[in-house]
Amino acid sequence: DTAVSQTPKYLVTQMGNDKSIKCEQNLGHDTMYWYKQDSKKFLKIMFSYNNKELIINETVPNRFSPKSPDKAHLNLHINSLELGDSAVYFCASSGQGRKLFFGSGTQLSVL
Amino acid sequence: AQSVSQHNHHVILSEAASLELGCNYSYGGTVNLFWYVQYPGQHLQLLLKYFSGDPLVKGIKGFEAEFIKSKFSFNLRKPSVQWSDTAEYFCAVNIVGGADGLTFGKGTHLIIQP
Fold first, then answer.
1. Which of A35, A43, A99 sits opposite B109 (nearest CB)?
2. What is the four-CA torsion angle of B107, A35, B39, B11, rounded to 10 degrees?
3. What's the rounded Cα separation, in Å, for the pair A10 and A12?
4. Which of chain A's residues have a Cβ under 8 Å away from the Cβ of B40?
5. Which of A11, A24, A22, A23 minimizes the C-alpha distance to A85?
6. How many CA atoms lie within 13 A of A19 on its CB side?
């Protein structure tokens, strides 16, 4: 069973569209995250949720809105997509030990 | 699909000991390689990376890693660890010319005893 799963794996869309990336973890973790991989392959934290509450919100455009319907899910919704949003987005979760478990990534391409 | 193996899930060392954490990947083509560190209660940070050139790369905080292509390895080393090196260490691989995403190993939990 996949511990942290995110869908879709690939997402190709036009500028201006609204899209969502879903993430689910079956590890019983309390904390979930979204990371963005930049053009140099470096990961940067975007959001962190603990028990459905936002605890970290780094400097990202407000077109990005995380939604956590329950503590096993943290979806990323992006409005009015721009070319610069093209990147790979990683979901992750952690329990009390804080070790991160990563999803396999979603490659977003905005045309 | 490529995979990344970190053979040691937990490592316990005393201060001043030398450290080597193993990382092997399964892909025969050209790769970019990374080591990330997650200190307790903090987010992921990049320790060092290899894209091309000198296979011995130096990172922050005295860490280095050596890319050995024939062994598909990118082991992380530090000659003398400190208590503050206690953290989770992740190896990651990206295929050059392939999909953009990183593939992570499962991480190694390093505990340094004073």
1. A99
2. 0
3. 7
4. 98
5. A11
6. 21
* Cβ-nearest to A41 among B32, B44, B109: B32
Burial readout B36-58 (b: 16 or more C-beta within 10 A, e: otherwise): bbbeeeebbebbbbbeeeeeebe
Say whether B101 and A37 touch across the interface (CB within 8 A).
yes
Taking CA atoms, what residue in B is nearest to A46? B43
Rounded Cα distance between A90 and A6, Å, is 8
Summarised one tens digit per residue, pLDDT across range B73-105 is 999 999 999 999 999 999 998 888 766 677 888
Beta-carbon contacts of residue A110 (< 8 Å; ≥ 6 apart): A13, A14, A15, A81, A82, A83, A84, A85, A86
Structure confidence by residue, pLDDT tens digits, A90-99: 999 988 766 7
Cα distance between the two ends of chain A: 34
Q: Which residue has the tokens 């307790």?
A: B40
